[in-house]
Design a protein that fits this description.
There is one protein chain. With about 350 residues, this protein is an alpha+beta fold. About 15% of the residues lie in helices and about 25% in strands. It has helices spanning about 50-55, 110-120, 190-200, 205-210, 235-245, 300-305, 330-335; strands spanning about 35, 40-45, 70-75, 100-105, 125-130, 135-140, 150, 155-160, 170-175, 185, 250-260, 275-280, 285-290, 295-300, 310-315, 315-325. A hairpin with an 8-residue loop joins β8 and β9.
Length: about 350
């Protein structure tokens, strides 16, 4: 299971990401602030004394750090107020009071709740769909030097997205309220957030990261700080640990652009699950996992993708070239593996 963390009492995100750039690109900080209501996300609630222990045994990362695609938040207490900068202070919860909210992929909400309840066994934790009461929002293209949490007077906060700086801030808010600081931003459609995310090479949700099929390391979850190789067991740990310690990941998720023969971007000609092939050999290089207009992401064999532009085309649409855009946030060692 792939999973994200926000704010658990006394537990702070702790991560470092190395950067490597193969070519100059515009900095995300230059993009005007935007805020999107994420209608593709819903919210579930965990409550009970065994909540942390229960999640710790299921997830790929330490629940005290950063999780991926099941974003955890500690809801404010009814009597909690924030200070003027929105950081607030929270009294430590008693063990029986542990409560977490999680924003999750809408398309698998019922299946996810059912699966979590199946693994609950005798754990003292209640799992509830509260999607009608809460909504998930994302703020991006912002000044990333701001404090990591910004909120309103009733305690609901924005939390810095620990995957990448350019993804900005994320938060769960009551459905009948406007999130703080949205008034000063430009509210925009969720499709713009999806495009922003894809162009930075970050997949999210079960459509882009197919459940039961995706190998977390191929989707770069280790580079996005979503996997702990030090925590205890979780489902699928052996395969992930073995692949990691072998040191070479032959396929990875990469941002891609679709171009015509003149090098101009083409839109709406490529669909999800379309095959990418080598123009020289005709062999399959990988698969498009998501496409929006002329942009997308695909899981490709890195060795073939490194051969340069002009080598990759779409199967059945050989007039559509595929250009790989190497993310600036990729750790240098990922490039060295294939030099």
């Amino acid at each position: 299971m792939k999973i994200f963390k926000s704010s658990i009492p006394s537990l702070k995100p702790n991560f470092k990401i190395k950067y490597f750039s193969s070519s100059p690109k515009p900095q995300p900080d230059n993009v005007s602030p935007m805020a999107s209501l994420l209608k593709t996300r819903s919210v579930i609630r965990f409550r009970g004394p065994d909540t942390i222990k229960f999640l710790q045994g299921l997830l790929t990362n330490d629940v005290r750090r950063f999780l991926y695609d099941l974003f955890l938040y500690n809801p404010p207490r009814p009597d909690e107020k924030l200070d003027p900068i929105g950081s607030g202070s929270r009294p430590r919860l008693e063990q029986d009071e542990v409560e977490l909210l999680a924003d999750v992929d809408c398309s698998v909400l019922d299946e996810l709740v059912e699966t979590l309840k199946k693994y609950r066994l005798r754990s003292k934790v209640d799992i509830e769909n509260v999607g009608e009461s809460f909504s998930c929002w994302q703020r991006y293209g912002v000044n990333h030097n701001q404090r990591s949490s910004q909120g309103n007077s009733i305690g609901w906060k924005w939390h810095k997205d620990p995957r990448l700086d350019c993804l900005g801030f994320r938060g769960i808010f009551p459905s009948n309220t406007t999130p703080p600081m949205v008034e000063g931003d430009t509210e925009t459609k969720e499709e713009n957030y999806i495009l922003w995310r894809l162009e930075n090479g970050v997949a999210e949700g079960s459509i882009e990261i197919p459940k039961g099929e995706a190998i977390p390391l191929e989707y770069n979850l280790a580079g996005l700080n979503a996997i702990s190789f030090e925590k205890g067991c979780y489902i699928g740990q052996e395969l992930i640990a073995r692949s990691h310690h072998r040191g070479v990941i032959r396929k990875r998720l990469v941002p891609i652009k679709f171009l015509n023969q003149s090098g101009k971007e083409v839109e709406q000609k490529v669909g999800r699950s379309s095959e990418v092939i080598s123009m020289k050999s005709g062999k399959k290089v990988g698969m498009v996992t998501m496409a929006v207009g002329s942009s997308g992401v695909g899981v490709l064999r890195v060795e073939e993708a490194f051969k340069g532009s002009g080598n990759l085309v779409m199967k059945g649409e050989e007039d559509v070239k595929v250009e790989v855009v190497w993310p600036e946030w990729w750790p240098r060692e990922w490039f060295l593996e294939h030099e």
